[in-house]
Amino acid sequence: MSSLPPNPAPTPPPAPDAPRAHGLLEVGDGQRIYWEEWGSPDGVPLLYVHGGPGGGLGRSGYRRQADPARTRIIGFEQRGCGRSAPHASDPSVSLASNDTDRLIADMEALREHLGVDRWILNSVSWGSTLALAYALAHPGRVAGIVLFAVTTTHRMEIDWITEGVGTIFPEAWDRLASHAEGAGIGYARGRGRLVAAYARLMEDPDPAVRDAASREWALWEDTHISIGTGGLRRDPRWEDDAFRLAFCRLVTHYWSHDGFCDPPILDRLDRLAGIPATLIHGRRDVSGPASIAWRLHRGWPGSQLIIDEGDGHGGVSMAERWRAANDALVARHRARA
């Protein structure tokens, strides 16, 4: 018998800019995931899968990328972050039950809880990895996919973003690596993976060690996404200690395990055949090279690849294409219903 309280019933929004319904869903392993709904209850179901890992839903801008009159827009926050509980910023919260297979199971539990048969998936960055993993596991439940800033969290992508990008930002990468080398955990550049070193630092029992590591990692995050996004800008969310600690702990946990994607997504693309998809990627996205989006598109019959020449890891032009892709998928789904 669970000691968790029962799931709160969906409630009407107290204000026009609040979700139409929301709640916490118990999914096992002592976890409850936050979910919310916007738009029309009779619209085409659309699930937004956020980035990170650990990014959360943020300011709910995702809901503006689909027509609320024709779409039932659903968002959820993955285990350990946002309003889901328990929160990964608490070092006593184990990450042993936080992996991709369990996140996929959480998505399925949410689909059943909300009475959705098939839904369109929207995703950003890491969320595109999770959306792809879900589609591979449950292709019959996916009516279409829009991937924004495409990733598959293959080891080569992780090694690029944590090591290779240092060829573009040598000063910033040297600072990141030097912090790990000076932390007394036995890391030395050229021997071992830097991401694994930071995963160990984020599990250190000393809160000062975790805090310092999270601040260095956050600075690196801001740096490597700066090209094509208007230059280096500090993300204000880092000022929230709980957000920063959970994000950095979850990112290094997932990345040090290659996203828990075994075998890699790029080796299983045959299961995606028949699912319509639009892949939107910025040419200037040095965090995730366009070659990954290209490989995914080439191995996925029926997918459309849009390379935005001016944007990097997101941007205004890409967001406009995102909305257009959703409009097309919703129209296609309604025509076949």
From TrEMBL:
<dbReference type="InterPro" id="IPR002410">
    <property type="entry name" value="Peptidase_S33"/>
</dbReference>
<keyword id="KW-0031">Aminopeptidase</keyword>
<feature type="active site" description="Proton donor">
    <location>
        <position position="313"/>
    </location>
</feature>
<dbReference type="InterPro" id="IPR029058">
    <property type="entry name" value="AB_hydrolase_fold"/>
</dbReference>
<dbReference type="GO" id="GO:0004177">
    <property type="term" value="F:aminopeptidase activity"/>
</dbReference>
<dbReference type="Pfam" id="PF00561">
    <property type="entry name" value="Abhydrolase_1"/>
</dbReference>
<dbReference type="GO" id="GO:0005737">
    <property type="term" value="C:cytoplasm"/>
</dbReference>
<feature type="compositionally biased region" description="Pro residues">
    <location>
        <begin position="1"/>
        <end position="17"/>
    </location>
</feature>
<feature type="active site">
    <location>
        <position position="285"/>
    </location>
</feature>
<feature type="region of interest" description="Disordered">
    <location>
        <begin position="1"/>
        <end position="23"/>
    </location>
</feature>
<comment type="similarity">
    <text>Belongs to the peptidase S33 family.</text>
</comment>
<keyword id="KW-0645">Protease</keyword>
<feature type="active site" description="Nucleophile">
    <location>
        <position position="125"/>
    </location>
</feature>
<feature type="domain" description="AB hydrolase-1">
    <location>
        <begin position="45"/>
        <end position="313"/>
    </location>
</feature>
<keyword id="KW-0963">Cytoplasm</keyword>
<dbReference type="InterPro" id="IPR005944">
    <property type="entry name" value="Pro_iminopeptidase"/>
</dbReference>
<keyword id="KW-0378">Hydrolase</keyword>
<dbReference type="InterPro" id="IPR000073">
    <property type="entry name" value="AB_hydrolase_1"/>
</dbReference>
<protein>
    <recommendedName>
        <fullName>Proline iminopeptidase</fullName>
        <ecNumber>3.4.11.5</ecNumber>
    </recommendedName>
</protein>
<dbReference type="GO" id="GO:0006508">
    <property type="term" value="P:proteolysis"/>
</dbReference>
